[in-house]
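Hi U.,

Before I forget, here's the chain from the pilot set. I'm dumping it here mostly so it's searchable later in email.
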Amino acid sequence: MKIHTCTMNSAALIEKDVVACIGYFDGLHKGHMALVENTIAKAKEMNAESVLITFDPDPWVIIKQVVDVQHLTTMKQRQKLAEEAGLDHFVVLEFTKEMSALSEKQFVELLCRNLPLKGMICGFDFHYGSRGSGNAETLAKHGFDVVCVQSVNDEHGKISSTRICECIDEGDMESAALLLGYAYTIEGKVVHGNAKGTGIGFPTANIMADSEFIIPARGVYVGAVTVDGICYPAMINIGYNPTFNKRRLLSMEAHLLNFHQNIYDKEVSVVFYKKIRSEKRFNSIDELIEQLNNDVLVTQEYFR
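Structure:
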């Protein structure tokens, strides 16, 4: 998959005819994948190449002046998911105030200047151009085929990034995975902690996640940590370490099972499968150790 950046001044990013889907695609969840699958199918039908068009930064940052926006995925993760889905190209619109002010006609002209569009796939609720003046109907006036994909629903309603965020906020990682189509994953760097876990026989990797990620609810989770391309079962704690009462900032610590390597300063991926329990303050270190031993057993049983 080739990655391209589209700016107000760029042109002719791709030479061959393309069919493209467009959106922010945070999470590239099951709802988004309906657009991706339609794009790939339509591209094959029209002997064209498939393209995903997205925005950077999040349009809300430019239009609504929202700061510290949190997401389900980083741009890098979305690119990896798009490549795994089989798309030929990934186009990032460098979204600026100037771009946000384009009329629907000017916005499509910008796309056509960069991409030889034969078809466009969009969601039923897609809007573009200044003040969201454009939609699927206006897209169809520009000389290429337009396919409008309806919402993907389950028994609880529309699959959306908002619903997934709510699941993660509640620590319901199993429901989040069902909606995403994969287990929620956070990327970060292993940093030095206070070594309290090592002192009681449960060494942990303290992970500093990018502030863009949504952090699951406080508690202990069954998960996995990928280090240098190898995935290790892990017990993950999100919280303030109330038993030792030392932390003022929320921490993410992972105890990798049967793992004894020094991984300080390494970039890792943390996958969340299931919440074991909520955060709790224990009356003694012995009580904490007993609970951690039980958490390890639950984690081991999950992987069996």
